[in-house]
Amino acid sequence: MAMAFGSKNKAGVIGLGIIGSRVAASLRRAGYRTFVWNRSPRPEPNFLGSPAEVADAARYVQLFVSDEKALFECIEAMAPALTRDHIVLNHASISPEHTLRAAEMVWASGAKFLDAPFTGSRNSAAEARLVYYVGGDKDVLEKLRPQLEVSGRKVMHLGPVGAASAVKIATNMINAVSTQVLSEALALTVGCGVPAEDFAAAVAENGCRSGVIDMKLAKMMAGDYEPHFSLKHMFKDVQFALQMAQKQNLELPATSTVAAILLAGLHQGRADMDFSAVALNFGFVPREPEPEVEPAGDSEPAEALDEETKGPDSIASDAAPVVANALQIGGPAPSPDQASLGGAASSPDLVSTRSGQESDPPTHLDRAEMHPLSLDVADSEKKPLPVLSVADLAMDEDDEEK
Q1: Domain that holds residue 55
Q2: Which residues of 330-362 are buried (b: 16+ CB within 10 A; e: fewer)?
Q3: Do residues 277 and 176 make contact, with C-beta atoms less than 8 angstroms apart?
Q4: What is the pLDDT of residue 123?
Q5: Is the confidence at residue 23, as pLDDT, over 50?
Q6: Exposed end of the chain (fewer CB within 10 Å): N or C?
Q7: Domain limit, last residue, from 130, 160, 190
């Protein structure tokens, strides 16, 4: 039997990764009776048995799911419970094409749909400082705006359904390329004998300074690649951008080159590291862990980032050749046997360099210690990399900074 909507201060949240769980917590603190569901059960208040039960309980449902496949499955599961009073919001970063398909599925049930990707980190979510980009009917947005403002400091209407997804992918193109160039500039100046701290101080006073530089430069210098937005997710969004560009007959040489570098990072075991791990290609390796004071058995387990994860070996390679086509524009990808890039670590526990010697995070590296990523055509033609699909790489996307 369907639940009555009752009070207007009821909210539904589907997907309880790092962002979704924090949005749900913010809604509860704001007085919303919040009904939730996750594909893996969680010890959350009002955890229901299915997406349809969430739709039965709340008319406004926010979806923080992994990818377009998970989104379509959730909408199908919710469909019997959707009515003309419902508004369904998709917060996952997916292509405008997939966004429109999701909207059509919701509209077929008589409900309303908003395209609402966000930008912000886990801390932003916890502090209700997300920024929502919204595509869809503006009048529909105004009905839901109070609920979004509980977890967001700004809600921006950008046009019809699909517009917000396009903007989100475009901003991540900028983040990906900027971070790659930042790692190159850091390596170049350090190789010239300039202390990394001095380079950072100079950038802080320069017009090139940006939010992404403020977030990533210090992390690169420290060799800290704890994920705020993982490399696998950045690759997925860059791949979306290349798909969109192909349909418009656009060449994106900078984005294509970064796609090749990110793809190499996946093969090097860096999928779950922050996308700023592109700096590993230049020897900025993770910090050596501090010695354990307590017995090993007393340490707390690390917080899980995803409901389910796939190791690099489980990623399929039989998808549409989007990156392969793009590499013809931006240059070939490095081959798997270049994966070590001089032995730079592929996990936060490793600190080896090309010489095999342990080292602290480099801030005064000699030029000989730099390990720039090779994009040698001959090498890549000998052993081309397989192409990875967006669906194979998508995880619980709400778990990280976007």
Answers
A1: 10-160
A2: bbbbbbeebeebbbbbbebeebbbeeeeeeebb
A3: no
A4: 83
A5: yes
A6: N
A7: 160
Span 318-338, pLDDT tens digits: 333 444 444 443 333 334 333
Bridge partners for 352 per DSSP: 358
Q: How many Å is the maximal CA-CA distance in the chain?
A: 71
CA proximity to 68, closest of 394, 401, 402, 400? 394
Q: Which residues contact 244 (CB under 8 A, 6 or more apart)?
A: 95, 96, 166, 169
Look up tokens 């900074």; give the residue. Answer: 401
Answer yes or no: are the C-beta atoms of 106 and 82 closer than 8 Å: yes
Q: Are residues 88 and 154 in the same domain?
A: yes
- The count of other CB atoms within 10 Å of the CB of residue 366 is 11
Same domain, 280 and 330: yes
Q: Are 277 and 265 in contact (CB under 8 A)?
A: yes
Amino acid making up residue 314: S
**Which residues are registered as beta bridge partners of 119?**
131
